[in-house]
Amino acid sequence: MDTLNLSPAAPEILTLIMVCAILIIDLFLDDSRRHVSFMLTLLTLFIAALLAAVGGSGVHHAFNGMFVADPMAQSLKVFICISVGAMLVYSREYARLRGLFRGEFFVLTLFATLGMMVMVSASHFLTLYLGLELMSLSLYSMVALSRDSAPATEAAMKYFVLGALASGMLLYGLSMVYGATGSLQIADVAAKIAAHHANQTLLVFGLVFVVAGLGFKLGAVPFHMWLPDVYHGAPTAVTLLIGSAPELATFAFVLRILVVALGGQGLLVEWQQMLILLAVLSMAVGNVTAIAQTNIKRMLAYSTISHMGFMLLGILSGSVNGYGAAMFYIVTYVLTVAGAFAVIMLLSREGFEAEQLDDFKGLNQRSPWYAFMMLLIMFSLAGIPPAVGFYAKLTVFQAVIDKGMIWLAVVAVLFSLVGAFYYLRVVKLMYFDAPQDSAPLHSTADVRALISANGLAILVLGLLPGGLMELCQRAIQASL
Amino acid sequence: MLSGLPLLTLAIWVPIVAGAMVLATGSDRSAPVARWLALLGSVAGFLVTLPLWAQFDPAAHGMQFQELHAWISRFHINYHLGIDGVSLLLILLNSFTTVLIVIAGWHVIEARVSQYMAAFLVLSGVMNGVFAALDGLLFYVFFEATLIPMFIIIGVWGGPNRVYAAVKFFLYTLLGSLLTLIALIYLYNAADGSFAILDWHKLKLGLSAQVLIFLAFLMAFAVKVPMWPVHTWLPDAHVEAPTGGSVVLAAIMLKLGGYGFIRLSLPIVPDASHSLSGFIIALSLIAVVYIGLVALVQTDMKKLIAYSSISHMGFVTMGLFLFNAIGFEGAVLQMISHGFVSGALFLCVGVLYDRLHSRLIADYGGVVNTMPVFAAFFMLFAMANSGLPGTSGFVGEFLVILGATQVSFWYAALAATTLMLGAAYTLWMYRRVVFGAIANSKVAGLKDVNAREILFLSALALAVLAMGLWPYPMGEVLHTSVTDLLSHVAQSKL
Fold this sequence. Notes:
The complex is a heterodimer of chains A (480) and B (494).
Chain A: H1 10-27, H2 35-54, E1 60-62, E2 67-69, H3 71-97, H4 103-121, H5 125-143, H6 150-181, H7 186-194, H8 200-218, H9 226-233, H10 236-243, H11 245-261, H12 267-291, H13 296-316, H14 320-347, H15 363-366, H16 368-382, H17 388-402, H18 406-432, H19 445-463, H20 466-479
Antiparallel strand pairs in A: 1-2
Chain B: H1 7-24, H2 31-55, E1 64-72, E2 77-83, H3 85-104, H4 113-132, H5 136-145, H6 147-157, H7 162-190, H8 197-202, H9 207-224, H10 233-240, H11 243-268, H12 270-275, H13 277-296, H14 301-320, H15 325-356, H16 367-370, H17 372-386, H18 392-407, H19 409-434, H20 441-444, H21 451-469, H22 472-490
Helix pairs in contact in B: 1-2, 1-4, 2-3, 2-4, 3-4, 3-11, 3-15, 3-21, 3-22, 4-5, 4-6, 4-11, 5-7, 6-7, 7-9, 7-10, 9-11, 10-11, 10-14, 11-14, 11-15, 11-22, 13-14, 13-19, 14-15, 14-18, 14-19, 15-17, 15-18, 15-21, 15-22, 17-19, 17-21, 18-19, 18-21
């Protein structure tokens, strides 16, 4: 273990330096030159992604084994940077019109990104927690960024209180694990458990709290209460941020705690049973409740809950194959949902939030191309081929059926049928109904290009999903 | 020269690419471009399937024109295409029908022309994909992908209750196919990580697993066929869909179900198929007799033809599960013939609807006085639908009844009631619409079919007559495939 070698943490170090620089530079910029900070932020993300991609192969430790750069972490960092960058591009006009296009916005975004990168690279419970809190605290304040909006403030409050509660539970659970194993180092914990040197009762007790804490962060039922309110209350740009990149970080977080640290004999079966319950409840509550929503951001919030349920299917299968499937699921989900929020922001304009489902009426007449992109996104979320969402469902179903849990796959399939209904409703509104609102859609060339790339990526990955699947599987295999 | 080309790939992708190009023409200002481009694309799509017919070797065993490329290596999923006689006929039928639909929608569709034409072209390519796929997952992807364009077609250009019909169609068929997905993944795991349908044909399976897989497949294919009692989406979808949509639904999409039985259910789980054949035949006979009676009381022409389709498809499922060559070939020929006849009938109703904007039988009467040429075409197709000898409708029905007599007298007797029922509801409708005195002033003002309509009606009339008078070439193409399949199905896999 090379303790002085800091190069594995190069993307994080760069981000930290840049975020401090932007914080200072932004002080000297007036509003007309705010795009300098914007470009610097994008540049930071780009270089961080590049650094993560270059350091892709092999497993490297740093900071006395508290930090690890393995293929899973590196590829997730690349995806995180891409999705945060896409969020910035999508939300530029939206943020400018709402007075959010300020230095804080960029700095908090980068801090949240840094938190996520630390989370995916943590190999010590403390680092893990540090990353989690850095990300969460930045996101809490971003939700409250539009100060004058009562729903946003309320959402931020809820997010903060429930998030703090979840962090508390997680810490309590981890302290039990520490008590049982005497270590916070993930590899040590795993070794102690494998050697039966830990008190099983204490471990299981801690595990319950850990799973509850993770459930909160994922938004799995019954720990999902905060999610619809936060999605609804936050400015759409922030909703997009909360709904995309943090899912990738949380996936790594769950994998490192449950699979790597607590995946030893006896414990795997314990959390498997808990996750089955969480997954089935999430799919049921998420999909059924989404039907009743009239606000598209709330609908997508419940849809997120159900998708977390599907993703958990991959993890609870307890096989490397399943973890790879879950990673593929989460990556394609983030790609899809980012596009959905981008279209919502596109329909919004100054003083008008396109939040209601009815705002999508007749989109095909207003703009056939964006309607087509949204159609691809909706069919992908519903899991209809040839959109990429189908392959995501296919891989997790394959993982659970491989483990003999056919009933679970049948349950999942039935709930995805329920889910298809409300995704279809969006398509119905866009294609079958007459427009309520005939205001022309304004968008800049970069947003147009990015939404098109996003939508077409869903289709192209649907036709040729092999490469990304392989990448996820290799990353998991090399990292566990 | 042609032998080197990947003909099946062309049959799938030429219409899809053409569809994308039509879509790119954009708004209705360039509608004429969209129409001509769509016609060009559909004709090209039909032309690339003709070498398949020419080069198909009827005597050869196994799949022909095979193409195999790795697709998703992580799950050993391949882009594996190949056809036998059954798929060949269905691909030809599909590509032929697409051309007619483009012509039929020429002046009828005025709104969002490029999207309408593109949806049909893409749908045509995707359905060719279903008929050509030899990889389980590829089959499933194509099978499911048909839902998206059809959903849009019904919902955008359909009748007043189109949203209900479109959503019902989508969810109904999705429910069936999602369980099939589970069965496919189970087979993949059971076959040690292979999605190849031809591997699954050889896979040994226990009886209880076979029965469960059979039922999962049944969910998907029974909904598509549709079999009684999961047929209720079809009348809604047919009535609300635009004419072209009804034609594709009846002529091709229903065949996906029958084809699924032939390609997946029967050869992969033969023992379950044998032990549940009584159940399937019972459902088929209910469809033939009960739905025939239901068709009799319809007041809406499209609904009547929709019920008649269900009744005729009962013949298909029955023929497939008789396990003799006559019945099986009869079932396949019935699928093809039904494609021509029901498509033609829907087009005839479309011709009337375009003029009077009503599908109700009561709004018509005495049409022969104002539209004699149309009445003649309509007569031919009505006769074919009733199974008159000399038309294509007779061949399939006769063979299935013949096959049924070899199994049980009662099967044959019940099935034969369709000859009465079919004649009753079709000809009664025909009499009320076409004959008699001119019913009202609107009928008096009708104009006879124009050149464009004569074009697609006569193309179908030729097909119906040719198949009725000389079915031998089709039987020849089918014969080896059917015999091989039946001998495979006769072997137990336990």
